[in-house]
Each structure stands twice: as structure tokens, then as C-alpha cells.
Amino acid sequence: MFHNRLQKMWKHFAKIARKQEIACFRFYDHDLPEFPFAIDYYNGAVHAAEYKRRHGMEDAEHEVWLEACKQTIATVLATDPGQIYMKIRQRKAGRQGQYEKFDELKVEKIVPEGGLNFIINLTDYLDTGLFLDHRITRGLVREVAERKDVLNLFCYTGSFSLYAADGGARTVTSVDLSKTYLNWGKRNMQYNKLYKEDKHEFVHGDVLEYVDWLQKDTYDLIICDPPTFSNSKRMEGEFDVQRDHVALLKRLLKICRDGGSIYFSNNYRNFVLDREAIPALTIKDITAQTTPFDFQGKLNRKCFLIEK
User: Fold this and answer.
1) Nearest-angstrom CA–CA distance, 216 and 178
2) Does an H or E element contain 185, and which?
């Protein structure tokens, strides 16, 4: 059953990816309840994350089942099982799951996207360092970044920052709580020979505190993709995207120049933007426009373009 479904999905998505010259894409996402994986293809390597559930198996039995699934994936893709990396995807509050190591054996790979190269990590963390669902949004940022001062908040490994730099941004400031991810983002910039010390700043800190002390009218383009919820020890208080998004966006509009734009997104399934409370010139829901072919019907993410 898993083999047949996987074969069908792989054939379908791989064909579209070849036509669009896309090397990294998702081709299976919990399509069968009995096989709850999110499976991504990264230019020859496969990252398969099992959603944690009550499967009723003993640990040893589960390991055997997981290995059988790995072999099935290898058979369908006609690839070496050594190129398939399996994880268990646990749901955790905020983004702390991103910061916790899975494995001490680091396996990194360079993968292409949009004419750029990204360092991904297939073993150490919950995610690889490149969120495939934002592929289109990254392209939109590059298209409008020229000669603009760009701020990338909750920047993770800086993929938006890299696209902005490639688009000719005047400056790019990237902010995150994790030094690991900031260094990763800087490495991405350096690998693509785009990094310039006087133009690209990586700031380690609490995003909410950071935007509080920024002066008015500082940035032309802001990217903000906050966690659904965060109570990190490194942050003051708790953040809830539904409860706190209006206050956050008001701060961002204050530091955004007239005529500037904010790309705001989050992964809260039931998120509702309080449009009436946000003093913006225009607010556009661009969720559908920015959903890639491999995430159609499977994506909880909301994405908005807010213009001042």
C-alpha cells in the first residue's frame, strides 16, 4: 500500500519539479494514515520525518517498521538507502524543537534553489534549514529587494536574507534567538559569495525586544515569520501569534518607511488576521499565490503582504 502510493506521488511531483527545474520538493505528506510521514527530496537525498503518534508498537518493532519504510522509499526512488534520513517529528511549543539536536553525526549537503545554493543539515535538527513551502515567497522578496533596506525577523537560517541580498538589497539585517542559525545564515551568504560585512548584519536576540528600540522609518522591506507560540527562556514573557500579531505588526509598521512592505506569515492552523486593527495602506492575503505545487491542499501556513 505504501509502495503504491509513494510511487504514484513520486512520479507526479518529480515530473512537475523537472519541468520547473526545482531540485528540492515535498512528494509525500501523510497521504496514508498508516504511514504518517512528511517526505522531502533534496537533490538526491531524502528527508523523511514521521509525525509522532500512538502507533501501538514496541520500540524494537517500530525500528523494524521504520527500516522497512526506508527500504520502500529507496526502492521507489531507486536510490541508496544511505541517502534516506529518517526522523520522528514531535510537536513542540514554539520553535524549541528546531533548536534541539537529534544526532551528533552531522550530515550536511549543498542544494540548489532559485539559482542559489543552500547548506542543509539532514541529521542534527527537526528541520533541514530550508523550508520548502516558502519557495515562491522567497522569489517575491528577491524581485522587490533592489536598493532596499531589508529586515528579516525570526530569520532561522536566513534563506529570505540570501534571496534579498541576491536581489540587490542595500542592506539586510537578520534577527533570531539562535546563534547556531545565525551562523548558518551567514555561511549560506558566504557560500554564495554575497556576504559583505558592511551590508549584512546578523543579530542575536529577542525579536520583540529588538524591534522595540528600532527607530521609525528604518526599513523598506520586512519579512516576519514568527512561531505560533513561544515561551523561550531567552524571550521576555510569552508570545502567541493570534493574540499578539496586531501589536507586533503595529511595531513593524512604525519602523517601516512609507511605501514599504511587510511579508507576514505563520503556521497557526486557525489564524485570523485582525485587519481592522492594523493601520496599513493595504493588506493582501497571498497564501494561495505563495503556495507551491508540492504543498497544495496540505499547507496550514498563512501569508500576507502588508503595505504602508
Assistant:
1) 26
2) helix 179-191
In the chain, what are the domain boundaries? Answer: 2-91, 132-307
What is the predicted pLDDT for the residue at 236?
A: 59
CA–CA distances in Å: residue 250 to residues 239, 247, 307:
15, 5, 12
Which pLDDT does position 45 carry in this prediction?
A: 97
What global pTM score does this model have? 0.92
C-alpha radius of gyration, the chain, whole number: 20
pLDDT at 166: 98
Contact of 159 with 131, CB cutoff 8 Å: yes
Residue ranges in the chain whose pLDDT is less than 50 = 91-100, 102, 234
Q: Measured between alpha carbons, how far is 183 from 161 in angstroms, rounded to an integer?
A: 13
Give the architecture (CATH level 2) of 2-91: 2-Layer Sandwich (3.30)
Task: Write down the residue that cell numbers 525577523 correspond to.
Answer: 153
Topology adopted by domain 132-307 = Rossmann fold (3.40.50)
Could you tell me if 220 and 148 are in contact, meaning their C-beta atoms sit under 8 angstroms apart? Answer: yes
Q: Write out the three cell numbers for 178.
A: 539562535
Query: Which triple of cell numbers denotes residue 296?
Result: 497544495
Of 109, 127, 104, 132, the residue nearest 119 (C-alpha): 109
